[in-house]
UniProtKB/TrEMBL annotation:
Its main location: cytoplasm. It is found in: Cytoplasm; Golgi apparatus. This is SEC14-like protein 1. InterPro entries: CRAL-TRIO_dom, CRAL-TRIO_dom_sf, CRAL/TRIO_N_dom, CRAL/TRIO_N_dom_sf, GOLD_dom, GOLD_dom_sf, PRELI/MSF1_dom, SEC14/CRAL-TRIO_domain. The gene is Sec14l1_1. Residues 5-177 form the PRELI/MSF1 domain. It comes from Chloroceryle aenea (American pygmy kingfisher).
Amino acid sequence: AAMVQKYQSPVRVYKHPFELIMAAYERRFPTCPLIPMFVASDTVNEYKSEDEAIHVIERRCKLDIDAPRLLKKIAGVDYVYFVQKNSLNRRERTLHIEAYNETFSNRVIINEHCSYTVHPDNEDWTCFEQSASLDIKSFFGFESTVEKIAMKQYTSNIKKGKEIIEYYLKQLEEEGITFVPRWTPPVACKSESSTSHTRRPVSPAINIPDSATKEGLNNKEILNTSSSPSEPTAGTPDDKLDADYIKRYLGDLTPMQESCLIRLRQWLQETHKGKIPKDEHILRFLRARDFNIDKAREILCQSLTWRKQHQVDYILDTWNPPQVLQDYYAGGWHHHDKDGRPLYVLRLGQMDTKGLVRALGEEALLRYVLSINEEGLRRCEENTKVFGRPISSWTCLVDLEGLNMRHLWRPGVKALLRIIEVVEANYPETLGRLLILRAPRVFPVLWTLVSPFIDDNTRKKFLIYAGNDYQGPGGLLDYIDKEIIPDFLGGECMCEVPEGGLVPKSLYRTAEELENEDIKLWTETIYQSASVFKGAPHEVLIQIVDASSVITWDFDVCKGDIVFNIFHSKRAPQPPKKDSLGAHSITSPGGNNVQLIDKVWQLGRDYSMVESPLICKEGESVQGSHVTRWPGFYILQWKFHSMPACATTNLPRVDDVLASLQVSSHKCKVMYYTEVIGSEDFRGSMTSLESSHSGFSQLSAATTSSSQSHSSSMISR
């Protein structure tokens, strides 16, 4: 299989006139002590025009490639010969270099093109550009080895190229040569013509092959500072990257990394309709795929399509977050860390994630997170200018003080996972560091649910501190200056981040409202509603195969008071008969109602109670989980809660009469969601889960906890 490798250099600028650079360049021949592999070169062909403006010279160069002896033996050669053809045009002030291999030319095709031209904005400076391709058709079964050797040799020579010119410039200077006159046409009366020629406008490089260049080079520095972030001018099709710009704004890249960036960028300019992302953003996608240009192009294109569909480019200018978010979303930007990265502070433990999701739906929350990320990109760009070095990611500080079961609300976790997924796909390599502070005992549970969705590269950047460890050695002070440590972490800096707090129930949107929205949100698909009648509880069956699984539940009591139970049975209940007209088959528009526990079953013989009954009042939200101890069948039950009546009086009868007149009074409504998490989803041990649960008994007076089964439910009013 043929392998083609391509290389395209950035523009390298020498702040010296073309003629002086040429004098330095010529000193490389016939041999050059700085390139040990360049053993010799002989002139094969030479042509000079009469006026000496054109000088073409073709050399045969002998290279001693640094390759394993065995490989040289198999190949049967000691040296590799290249043909290099240099075309100097003194009038245009250009030098074009074409090189190709003569040895093994039927097996390996190497082509290189270099050019020295005058800088379009300064005629006393010189630009250098280089492109090459390597196509290995076959090499005695050693194709990939040869490819690696060739790439290694080539990239090391690229780095040397600049040093060599600078070395000879210095040598010239030591010999007192700091100026080489420009070419002038040989005319009898020289004076007038020479003036006309030095004033000659600089012509753009003309006959460079397509891969090497489009017209001249814009000065990216000027372009970058002048354009405001919203203007699309940052990527005009003709502009090119120069080496100094890359170093200043994008960082230290290897030659092959620079080449990938330049080629991907060029591909976008040629094929992508619409706004081309900034260089630093293209670079993030390359980094996320270890500079595999095809993989990076694929994820970048998906992201560009996504941005267009969701109008993400305009989110900062056009979208105003709803008031609920501004009041209750406990996150915000706060100065920068010690590396100059923008710092985002999130008081997750103080934030009512469940309330936010219920009040806003997932879409608005996602959109808000996107606007935070867009702002992050903008701040990175800003900090790059301010600090004088490339800053392409931000640091996130997450304070978990206050984290509890409410944060493990599964739809909330699901929303979080979807948000993480979208951010990972469209903002790769933007998280420089994640500091997680004051992690409580419940944290391992959340972490095991979330961590499989996080990219390995990203996960390496997480630092987790329990309790007050962040105040000790290796803590926060290593990453953030003392002056800006927020007040709520014991620092002196006033932090503007909202306090969070519980979102009032009055702001929740009902299932009906959510259903009426254009976007069908997950809430209606994830939650089921059930009706519970006097004498007709609603029951849900969960079959457990693996003894140590975790059953989680989350429900809202929409109407009436109910009792929640969880039972275990070794045998399967009979599926409910749908045909009979018994109370258990009542299906109403208000949701389903199913009984599973057979009337003849006896508690303690056919099935057992594994949790104490939990009384839940109208309007309450309940979350809980149960670590199963046995395989078999578990039944979750929501039962009508009737006040115990005094047996001797006739009053209940009157109640019954009234109730029958007012049918709805003995109907309760529940919206519930349940899920089983396999023990394999818990990377940590189950004991960490159990200990965190028993720790919840202090969280709320209404918590019931049965010690033998390590379970808890938490009620939030």
